[in-house]
C-alpha cells in the first residue's frame, strides 16, 4: 500500500485527508485474506519507484497473486508522489511477466484510489427505501474489464477465439 497524504508545497496539491482510513481499511481486509501487507506513507516519485522495483524483484513463488493499493492524487494515466507525478504504466510495468518472473501467470491486482481527470460525477439518487437521499456514482454498477493493457493489441485465435473471452 502506497499512501500519500502530505505533498510538497511546490506541487500545489492539498493534503489528502481521510486517506489514512483507506490505508487502514485496505490493510485490514488484505491481511484478513492472508496477504502480507506493507504500508509506505508519503512517498516521493523516486521512493515509489524504488519500493515497487524492490517488490517486483522479490521472490513471489509461494504467492497465489499480488495486490498493490495506490492512494494519492492522480490524473489520467498518472499517479502522484509527494513531489510530482509518474506514469501509472511505469509503476505497473514493473510487474510484467518479462520483469517479474515469479508472478508470471498469477493475478496482479492494482487498486488505485486517485483522480483520473477533472470531470465531476455528482451521482444520482437511489430508489432504495433504506438509504433515503443516498447518492451513488452514476457508474457505480459498472465493472470495466479490458482484454489487453493500454497501448497493446488484443489477441484472438481464429479457431478458439480470444484468450480473454475464453477465460470468462
Structural account:
The protein is an alpha/beta fold. The chain has 4 helices and 11 strands. The chain has a 4-stranded parallel sheet with strand order 2-1-3-7. The relative contact order is 0.14.
Helix content: 10-25%
In total, the number of domains comes to 1
Q: How many β-strand stretches?
A: 11
Order of helices and strands: EHEHEEEEHEEEEEH
Strand order of the largest sheet: 2-1-3-7
User: How does CATH name the architecture?
Assistant: 3-Layer(aba) Sandwich
Estimated share of beta-strand residues: 15-25%
Assign an overall shape: globular
Give the CATH level 1 class. Answer: Alpha Beta
What is the CA-CA span between the terminal residues?
A: 28 Å
Parts with pLDDT < 50 across at least 5 consecutive residues: none
What is the CA-atom radius of gyration, in angstroms? 18 Å
Write the layout of secondary structure elements.
Layout (H helix, E strand, L loop, with lengths): L1 E2 L15 H14 L7 E2 L3 H13 L8 E6 L2 E2 L2 E4 L2 E4 H6 L14 E6 L10 E2 L9 E2 L19 E2 L3 E2 H5 L1
InterPro entries: Caspase-like_dom_sf, Caspase_cys_AS, Caspase_his_AS, Pept_C14, Pept_C14_caspase, Pept_C14_p10, Pept_C14_p20, Pept_C14A
Pfam families: Peptidase_C14
Subcellular location: Cytoplasm
